[in-house]
Amino acid sequence: MNFPSPFYRWRPHPWHGLGVGPNPPSVVHAYIEITPFDLVKYEVDKETGYLRVDRPQRTSSQPPVLYGFIPQTYCGDEIKRLSPKSERGDGDPLDICVISERPISKSEIILQARVVGGIQAIDGGEADDKIIAVLKNDSFWGNVNDIEDLPTLMIERIRHYFATYKLVFGKDNPMTIEGIYGCEHAEKVVQASITDYDNMYGR
Known about the structure:
Elements: E1 27-34, E2 40-44, E3 51-56, E4 66-69, H1 77-81, E5 88-89, E6 95-99, E7 109-123, E8 126-127, E9 130-135, H2 152-164, E10 175-182, H3 183-201
Parallel strand pairs: 5-8, 6-9
Antiparallel strand pairs: 1-4, 1-7, 2-3, 4-6, 7-8, 7-9, 7-10
């Protein structure tokens, strides 16, 4: 029997088995772990590739956009160089937030996203950037080219979510937001994470 190429006899690992995207660093694949409807923090299990429950959210804060990661990226030394206040990369794939006009309620999906900016975040000393992107060919957000084209309130909601999503009352918040950056720097971050992945795992 002839199978289409590529054909996976078993489910590919979403971090290592999916491509980084059709035109990186500007247009990338995003594997979605969390939707704006989730009150539980899910993240991909690095061994199996399935979603694992990380923690129920302690506060009422919900992710304002789709949230996941870019396959075949890694946050290591190159990412740390772009985050001067961090001590190291966080050792995870590069996080991405994707804005879509139409509600998408399913996770464990793959989509194409166009990079427009990002958030420079540090989690316990580790560089933990959040790329901000729009769904490619979105009928409403399709003309957005840079983070400045997005409503300020939307960016503030994304910033607030990441500033509070690890908050535990009575304890110091490990997460700090160092700044917001535009498309040009975001593409450098994506490219750095691709280089880090190549250095760590090869291709």
